[in-house]
Each structure stands twice: as structure tokens, then as C-alpha cells.
């Protein structure tokens, strides 16, 4: 029997017990951020370098005070970047601020209304960053061909959207996601669109290696409680995927067979 506590997620040669990755934005204050992240059980925590102080502004509160790097793997991201040039510059800044840290989340957005990924600029940035020695986890569309190219390029994880960032719409196109998963040579993690625990469970049941979320927790009425729910949802979905669901049938099959019963 598989022990889920030993079922590690491996990214860039590092093994993590938790398959839930969380963000740090949109909470009411840093104290709530810290409590929610702790309740989630996440080990990888992403933050927007262009919007968050992690030491570049010494007179402002430092987010690393509530998510210390000796306890969490910090995943700097390029949220707010709309060109490959901006994204590459932001990743290099993160590497300087975090003492040579190589693991980054690349996202290059197409516009401010949809926050849909600009795949052309994403491909450009990914190629530069991989050659520059970064371990790139990349936010992208749910296009299987683009996912294949990013994987072949050397990205360490592919992160297709389930729905638009912050939409809470859940997995809008499971069919494309299944194709991406079938062809995957690196971990595939759903990023964006999760709204509630069942969305996270479905992503894991499909075979995703993990789920990254922020708004679904931060915008909940009780973020800490929702963080706990997401922790359990990811575990439940992973367990169901590994267990293998029963086949779907059009008609009933009795749980207690009628053969041999007394008439």
C-alpha cells in the first residue's frame, strides 16, 4: 500500500512532502498570510518580486519575516510582467535578493483584463532563463503543444492554467489537461482558476503532480480554514488517483451480488 506521507513531489531534484503550493498575495495582512500558509502545509511558497518586499525596501515590512526561507522554499514569480525582457530582469533580481536562488516561477501575461499568458513571450523568456541556469517552473496556457515545447526546452515543471487567474472557475478544459499529462516528461501542476477544495481534488485525480493557488484561499471568508481544506483536498485527490477509480457504467451493479441467494 502506498503511504501518502512518503509520496514526494520532486522538482529540480528536490523532494517535497506537500503537493500544494501557495501564494502570498491578497491577504488582509502579513499575520493572516503566515497563518494561512502554515495551515496549508505547503512547503513551496510563491511571491511576486515586483509587488513584494523581501529586503529590497529595508524600511518596509519584509514578507520573509512570516515565511522564513529556512522553513519554506521561496518561489519568486514574475507576476506583473508583460514581456520576456521584464520577466528575465525580474528573475535575475530575485536571484540577487535571495543569494543565488535558482528556482523561479515564470509568468508573462498578455493583458491586464484576462491575465492570460502570452505564450510567445513566455517561450522567449523560458529559453533565456534556462540557458542562464535557472530552474524554471512555467505558467502557461493549456495548449499541449506549447507545454511540450516548454518541457523540451528544459523547464522543470509545466503549470497550465485551469481557469483565468483569480476567476475561481475551476478546471475549464480537462481534456487539454489530460493530453498535457499524457505527454509530460516533467511535473505538471495546475496553476490558476481553482476556487474551492473540489477543484483541487479534481486536478489531482486527473494525475497532476500538484496544485498552486492563492486567491481561492486568500479570498475565502475564512482563509485559514480554507487553507486546511485545500491541504486535505490535494491529499484526497492524490490518493484517489493512485488508488484508481472504478470504471463508469451506464447501469447498476449490485454491491452484494444476487447469485447464490436463497429464493
Question: Describe it for me?
Answer:
There is one protein chain. This protein has 263 residues and is α/β, with parallel strands linked by helices. It has a single domain (4-243), classed as Aldolase class I (TIM Barrel), CATH 3.20.20. The chain is built from 8 helices and 10 strands. A 5-stranded parallel beta sheet has the order 5-4-3-10-9. Strands 6-7-8 form a 3-stranded parallel beta sheet. Strands 1-2 form a two-stranded antiparallel sheet. Helix 4 (144-153) links the parallel strand 7 and strand 8. Helix 2 (84-97) packs parallel to helix 3. The chain is globular.
Annotation keywords:
single chain, 263 residues, alpha/beta, 5-stranded parallel sheet, 3-stranded parallel sheet
Describe how the helices and strands are arranged:
Layout lengths: L8 E3 L2 E3 L3 E4 L6 H11 L3 E5 L24 E5 L6 H14 L5 E4 L12 H13 L3 E6 L3 H10 L3 E4 L13 H10 L5 E3 L5 H9 L4 E4 L1 H4 L4 H21 L20
Parallel strand pairs: 3-4, 3-10, 4-5, 6-7, 7-8, 9-10
Antiparallel strand pairs: 1-2
Helix pairs in contact: 1-8, 2-3, 3-4, 4-5, 6-8
Amino acid at each position: 500500500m502506498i503511504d501518502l506521507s512518503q509520496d514526494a513531489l520532486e522538482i529540480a531534484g528536490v523532494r517535497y512532502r506537500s503537493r500544494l503550493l501557495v501564494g502570498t498575495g491578497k491577504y488582509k495582512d502579513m499575520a493572516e498570510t503566515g497563518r494561512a500558509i502554515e495551515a496549508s502545509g505547503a512547503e513551496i511558497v510563491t511571491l511576486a518580486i515586483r509587488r513584494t518586499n523581501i529586503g529590497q525596501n529595508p524600511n518596509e515590512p519584509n514578507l520573509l519575516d512570516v515565511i522564513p526561507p529556512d522553513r519554506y522554499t521561496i518561489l519568486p514569480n514574475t507576476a506583473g510582467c508583460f514581456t520576456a525582457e521584464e520577466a528575465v530582469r525580474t528573475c535575475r533580481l530575485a536571484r540577487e535578493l535571495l543569494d543565488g536562488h535558482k528556482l523561479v516561477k515564470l509568468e508573462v501575461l498578455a493583458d491586464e483584463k484576462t491575465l492570460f499568458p502570452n505564450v510567445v513571450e513566455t517561450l522567449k523568456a523560458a529559453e533565456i532563463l534556462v540557458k542562464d541556469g535557472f530552474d524554471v517552473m512555467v505558467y502557461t496556457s493549456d495548449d499541449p503543444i506549447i507545454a511540450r515545447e516548454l518541457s523540451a526546452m528544459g523547464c522543470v515543471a509545466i503549470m497550465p492554467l485551469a481557469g483565468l487567474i483569480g476567476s475561481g472557475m475551476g478546471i475549464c478544459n480537462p481534456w487539454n489537461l489530460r493530453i498535457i499529462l499524457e505527454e509530460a516528461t516533467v511535473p505538471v501542476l495546475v496553476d490558476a482558476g481553482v476556487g474551492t477544495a473540489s477543484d483541487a481534488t479534481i486536478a489531482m485525480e486527473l494525475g497532476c503532480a500538484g496544485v498552486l493557488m492563492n486567491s481561492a484561499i486568500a479570498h475565502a471568508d475564512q482563509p485559514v480554514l480554507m487553507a486546511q481544506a485545500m491541504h486535505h483536498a490535494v491529499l484526497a485527490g492524490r490518493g484517489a488517483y493512485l488508488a484508481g477509480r472504478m470504471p463508469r457504467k451506464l447501469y447498476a451493479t449490485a454491491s452484494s451480488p444476487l447469485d447464490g441467494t436463497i429464493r
